[in-house]
TrEMBL record:
Membrane topology: Multi-pass membrane protein
Repeat in keyword set: no
Pfam families found in the cross-reference section: Na_H_Exchanger (PF00999)
The organism of origin for this protein: Cobetia marina (Deleya marina)
Location of this chain's protein in the cell: Cell membrane
Domain Cation/H+ exchanger transmembrane, chain residue ranges per copy: 10-406
Protein name as annotated: Sodium:proton antiporter
Predominant cellular place of this UniProt entry's protein: membrane
Length: 423
């Protein structure tokens, strides 16, 4: 583990330096692009028989990493807490209806639409993937990824009202998606061909409801502890213990760790920031979590780029993935555009809101991690490869162009708040 950590931290540091010095792309996109180029170099050396040693070493080292466990059981708690720490709770409450709809009903409808389209495309390509496994794919690819969205939307200069909607949605919708994914995968693996809606409802209440309650309890506890002292070293340590201990406790209690970390992060970032921290503590706490966020994001996206070495990508898989990208964007456009068109009769929305929220719905590491959690079998490879290609498109194409879209639709008003839109 020490050698693995040393290797990938070193690669990430060099990628970050090269991106900052030469490419000057948004950090997450830049380091992933460099990782992809390194992967293509390794594949090229192997393909043209220049040497197979480098490819063998790369596959060996990457094969030792359990990407699903690393992200879902390790990095995710830190990244979600760090992201929620800087979200204004009053603004989040103002857009709670639209955020709630996108994070729940949006994920459900998207799972059905994308899963059905995937089944048809796989059948058309002569790849036998059962419909239930296609719904599993729909569940894992439907949620916008908070890790990808948080950094890229902020660096794009999106207006506050657009940013809070998509960031709020991405922070909460992964809990719904994980419940859906778990229930559908359980039914698909059992070969029953049926989904127990009652069991899924209970699972959602246990996971999401339990995660919210645990996050509230832990956040309130740490808030009171911080309030009783003024020592920035101890308060930073308390926040670290909250994330590590809280996520481990959530796993032991079988409730949603991601949702618990988001709720706890909102409490510490709002209530504790205003009522329990001195200016000195705020500076150190923010600096610590910003640094953790930047480092883990960079490592994660370098790994996503390097994972290309292990992916058996073909022209057929690229064609299926690009067709599904179109389905994903069109379904998201409908899910956002239709409700906004109806609500325009009563509320004022900023021009370009639908376009920005549609194009800014990025997919990222969580989708890849969930795909890699599918058990080994005949259906796993096409689903994993398709997910990977969609994630690459989402981050490289949508992530690089979202800033230009924001500039085009909102112009110089990019940081102003729409005064009347509260839904």
């Amino acid at each position: 583990m020490l050698n693995l950590a040393a290797l990938f931290i070193t690669i990430t540091a060099v990628c970050m330096w090269f991106n900052h010095r030469v490419l000057r792309l948004p950090p997450t996109i830049g380091v992933m692009a460099i990782g992809l180029v390194l992967s293509l170099g390794v594949i090229g050396l192997d393909h043209f028989a220049v040497t197979t040693v480098v490819a063998d070493i790369a596959e060996d080292w990457l094969g030792r990493i359990n990407f699903n466990s690393l992200l879902m059981d390790g990095m995710l708690s830190f990244l979600l807490f760090a992201g929620a720490l800087h979200v204004d709770l009053s603004r989040l409450k103002a857009y709670r209806r639209s955020i709630g709809l996108l994070a729940t009903l949006g994920v459900l409808v998207s799972t059905l639409v994308i899963g059905s389209a995937a089944w048809w495309l796989f059948q058309w390509a002569g790849i036998e993937v059962p419909y239930l496994y296609c719904l599993v794919f729909g569940a894992l690819i439907s949620p916008t990824d908070p890790i990808a969205v948080l950094g890229i939307m902020r660096s794009a200069g999106a207006p506050a009202d657009m940013e809070i909607r998509i960031v709020g949605e991405s922070l909460f919708n992964d809990g719904v998606a994980v419940v859906l994914f778990t229930a559908l995968l359980s039914a698909a693996s059992a070969g029953s061909g049926e989904v127990d809606l009652g069991h899924m409802g209970l699972l959602f209440l246990e996971e999401a409801g339990g995660g919210i309650l645990l996050g509230l309890a832990l956040g309130a506890l740490v808030y009171q502890l911080m309030r009783s002292i003024d020592q920035y070293q101890v308060e930073v340590m308390l926040s670290l213990a909250l994330v590590l201990g809280g996520y481990a406790l959530a796993s032991a209690l079988h409730v949603s760790g991601p949702i618990a970390m988001v709720v706890a992060g909102l409490i510490i970032g709002n209530m504790a920031r205003d009522g329990a921290m001195s200016d000195n503590t705020r500076r150190y706490l923010d600096g610590f979590w910003e640094l953790v966020d930047e480092i883990l994001n960079a490592v994660l996206f370098v790994l996503i780029g390097l994972e290309l070495v292990l992916m058996p990508i073909t022209l057929t898989s690229i064609g299926i993935a690009l067709a599904l990208v179109a389905v994903i964007l069109l379904s998201r456009l409908a899910l956002i555009g239709i409700p906004l068109s109806i609500l325009r009769r009563w509320y004022t929305f900023r021009a370009g809101t639908t376009r920005v929220l549609t194009w800014g719905g990025l997919r990222g590491g969580i989708s890849v991690a969930l795909a890699l959690a599918i058990p080994e079998g005949d259906f796993r490879e096409p689903l994993v490869v398709t997910t990977y290609i969609i994630v690459l498109f989402s981050i490289l194409v949508q992530g690089l162009s979202i800033g230009k879209l924001v500039t085009a639709v909102v112009g110089d008003r990019s940081r102003s708040e729409a005064p009347h839109d509260q839904h």
